[in-house]
Write a structure and sequence with these properties.
single chain, 20 strands, 553 residues, five-stranded parallel β-sheet, alpha/beta
Length: 553
């Protein structure tokens, strides 16, 4: 095991106001109250720890206001993987790990001393321990913090696993024993990279599986394609939005997910919302995150139909879906009640359940469907079902915001239900984008070399509206370059990023390469004509136009 050190300080701490915010101090025995010069500044402690000649360092601070240490240095911590593969374990050992585990937040008192009273002190093995220390001993000596894989353990306790276990234990004890908030924290120092401080569980053999093979088929990024339900384990960065949408679907029959092109509407619904709803269904077998499965409550289970798109024949597309999934058929049914009748019949044989119909890229009703009568009939069918089956039916649509006026104008069948149904997808912040980049890589046990490459990717897109497809395309191209190069370091590297021209240049450069590779001017003219056929103009707005292969031939 790489050289590592573990330091623990049990005692007193204070947080005093400073010009730049709260500043934490450890309080020695001879400190003078209110005199910061007689105390140990956590910023100084940080500097001394950083000078230690070791690769792995874990400092454990069990004192009041211990979380004030985070003001000395703050950086992002990665999420806990579902499985620690052997290759990930090896990386933990090779990469520097500089972490600080604190027993309380920067504005909280620890339970061992509170308002001058000994609260929460426990007897164990003849020694007195604070609730934090008691949990720490159980976590390491008994292996209680070996959380991965869930319910099994693998003989390895990372600092992240230790933190998650301690937070759950200490927060509960603090509330139960003293009606007090105490939240442990885990913070990286400036020298931290992608390592982890590691404890081995006594008497537990290591049983770490090998990482999955990296092939072009195993690409964790979707490029210019949206994420589907089967890609749920690779979908990251939208947890708050998924929770918001689940609550909306729980309480209302119609939800319209709106956003500009490239904001990830389709992926949010198909890979985020629908798997979260479908986990309540007995017939759902796709993999979903563990927290999603745990979130399945006693609320009504959902029967989630595969998402459909309007195409140029929306009635026909809907009838085909209902026939394939429910054995139903809309032909011969009245315009205003046809879908409602199908839903009512289904509900009669599925008491207590809800039926979810998702229509992706709803703007195709305007860009592809040229039959005004069929478009109007389709909208009336949906509106009637929303109005007549509000307890059983759930309609979810995704739509570009620039096409919204075409469905909200006076006389539109869904206009009355539209306003409460609106959900505008918010832009991603820096941490959301970091999850989008690092989450899929973590699933495949991939890394970025250097780690700062992630920051470069974020800087390129954080201020660019609709850049998610470009980001995903760049990451996909970097992955393909790694696979084709035959490397075995499982790292997406700076050289490939630079060769692609970064996020902004990657798609342009790839398209130019394909165009320049055409054999002559005749082929290039044909390419121009084919590309222009795949663009539609409606109301002065540009949109994709789906083209049949026979039309291009």
């Amino acid at each position: 095991v790489a050289p590592q050190r573990q330091l623990e300080a049990a005692g007193h701490g204070v947080a005093l106001d400073d010009d730049d915010g709260p500043r934490g101090y450890l309080v020695p025995q001879d400190a003078r109250p209110g005199d910061s010069a007689s105390m140990l500044a956590m910023t100084d402690l940080h500097a001394w720890l950083t000078a230690l000649p070791c690769r792995h360092m874990l400092a454990i601070l069990d004192c009041c206001f211990a979380g004030a240490f985070r003001w000395a240095a703050t950086r992002h911590l990665g999420a806990l993987p579902d499985v620690i593969h052997q290759e990930r374990y090896d990386r933990y050992l090779r990469s520097p790990a500089w972490q600080v585990l604190t027993s309380a937040s920067y504005d909280q008192r620890a339970l061992d001393v509170l308002d001058g009273k000994a609260i929460g002190v426990r007897e164990s093995d003849g020694k007195r321990h604070s609730p934090f220390a008691q949990a720490l001993i159980a976590a390491l000596a008994q292996g209680a913090a070996d959380l991965v894989p869930k319910g099994q353990g693998d003989g390895v306790i990372t600092a992240t696993e230790l933190y998650l276990y301690l937070r759950e234990q200490v927060e509960v004890q603090a509330e139960a024993q003293a009606r007090h908030e105490q939240t442990p924290g885990l913070w990286p120092l400036n020298k931290h990279r992608r390592g982890e401080f590691i404890f081995l569980v006594p008497g537990h053999p290591l049983n770490l599986p090998p990482a999955p093979d990296l092939t072009e088929e195993a690409n964790p990024y979707r490029g210019l394609k949206s994420y589907d339900q089967k890609h749920a384990p690779l979908f990251f960065g939208r947890e708050d939005e998924i929770n918001d949408l689940v609550q909306r679907v729980d309480r209302q029959p119609f939800v319209a997910v709106l956003g500009a092109s490239g904001t990830g509407k389709s992926s949010l619904v198909k890979a985020g919302l629908l798997p979260r709803l479908a986990v309540r269904s007995d017939d759902f077998s796709r993999p979903v995150p563990a927290e999603a499965a745990e979130a399945a409550t006693t609320k009504a289970p959902y029967r989630v139909l595969p998402p459909m798109r309007p195409t140029d024949r929306p009635i026909q597309a809907l009838a085909a879906l209902l026939c394939a999934e429910l054995g139903a058929d809309l032909s011969g049914l009245e315009d205003l009640t046809g879908l409602s009748v199908v839903i009512a019949r289904w509900a009669g044989t599925h008491p207590g359940q809800r039926l979810v119909l998702t229509i992706d890229q709803f703007e195709e009703l305007a860009t592809l469907c040229r039959d005004d009568a069929e478009r109007a009939r389709f909208l009336r069918l949906l509106a009637a079902a929303v109005a007549q089956q509000p307890e059983v039916f759930r309609l979810i649509v995704t739509l570009r915001t620039d096409f919204e006026p075409q469905f909200t104008q006076e006389g539109s069948p869904l206009a009355e239900a539209w306003k409460p149904a609106r959900y505008v997808v918010p832009p991603m912040d820096i941490e959301d984008l970091r999850q989008v980049i690092e989450g899929p890589a973590s699933v495949r046990v991939l890394y970025f070399d250097p780690p700062e490459l992630v920051d470069d990717l974020i800087k390129e897109v954080v201020q660019t509206p609709g850049a998610l497809p470009l980001l995903s395309f760049t990451l996909s191209e970097m992955y393909i370059r790694y696979v084709r190069a035959g490397r075995d370091d499982r790292s997406l590297c700076q050289a490939d990023y630079d060769a692609l021209g970064g996020v902004v240049g990657s798609l342009r450069n790839r398209a130019t390469e394909e165009y320049d590779a055409l054999p002559d001017d005749a082929h290039r003219r044909t390419m121009q004509q084919a590309m222009l056929r795949m663009v539609a103009v409606e109301g002065g707005e540009l949109a994709r136009r789906r083209v049949a292969l026979s039309e291009l031939e």
